[in-house]
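Check my protein:
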Amino acid sequence: MPPLADQLRPASLADFHGQAHLLGPGQPLRRALEEGALHSMVLWGPPGTGKTTLARMLAVNAGAAFVTLSAVLCGVKDIRAAVEAARAERASGRATAVFVDEVHRFNKAQQDAFLPHIEDGTITFIGATTENPAFELNNALLSRVRVYALRALDADALTGIIDRALVELGGTAPLEMDARLRRRLAEVADGDARRALNLLELAASLAADGVIDEATMKRAVEGAEVRRFDKGQDDFYDQISALHKSVRGSNPDAALYWFARMLDGGCDPNFIARRVARIASEDVGNADPRALGIAIDAWEAWRRLGPPEGELAIAQALVYCACAPKSNALYSAFNAAMAEVRGRGSDAVPAHIRNAPTALARAQGHGRAYRYDHDEPDGFAAGQTYFPDSMGERIYYEPVNRGMEIQIGEKLRRLRAAARGEPGEADG
């Protein structure tokens, strides 16, 4: 007997749960289903969100033949066979939808094999992928399809699917499962209808007297509570982005939440510790220079202690950075300096600040007229220049009026005024 998820695959929109943003009144996919109008597309979304079901419904409603290929198992030979079958259907006046599951696993040559047949209308291409098509599919294929992004199913949608399945599993006497346990199962499924139905099917096999109770539910879901987190893919980068922006936004609680989410998903804490060190420079900077030291100390604590003690040290650094005054002045200044360097030639070092280790260098004027700052009033050689003569003076670093950069800004204003020959103290 096929799995419950396959048995309950919806045949119409009435039984389909979720994806209201695509299937609500007037939305393009709903119109395609209602009008039986096929077009080439890629369905992109997490597992168990209805990609295969939607593809089948689209083909059936359009009266088209439905050919399934798995990019995990198939190659160019299988693609050619599917195209030949589509040509035969076309000769009899019937369209063909070629559904490619896990399409991101096809290489460029395999993806390119579909192009002329999509172009001339031999096939309607429907790809399904859990990975971002912009990264995983080539541009030639993307230009010939529409991409629809499916979302993980919310608890309400999953509960509706579970309710329907309880009737199916119970036959003439639906299985009993109270609302709290149905909701709990929906939460464990984490947006994946297939997971919800597989767990429900297991719970049903363990149930006594047609009742799925607390103990049965616990046995069925044991070890199944895994959150979505694909290392190296969109979920990973979305979550590290959320963590970084929570710290930048001075929200230590959200920072801790995303840190816990990433640890729970199996992220290497070393990666997060490295990001915290970056945050300490990029977003805190000289508004609180201690942040970088705390971040490095936390990183070293992780290396020495490992979990769970080292994870707590990283959490400490995250909270410190979140609560610290913020400045990206250093980050902006460094980027501006790098941009100028990359946009110019190799400007010469001014003679007065060149190294003069040899008699020849001194004869060429290296170091001549250099003023040693420690011998100058206030330890500052006012008016001495340090940029290449061809550039003139530049200002990249503009401290913000927060944290320690308040004092740094005041100091730099005095120094820069003195360098321009304006009256006032250079230091103080």
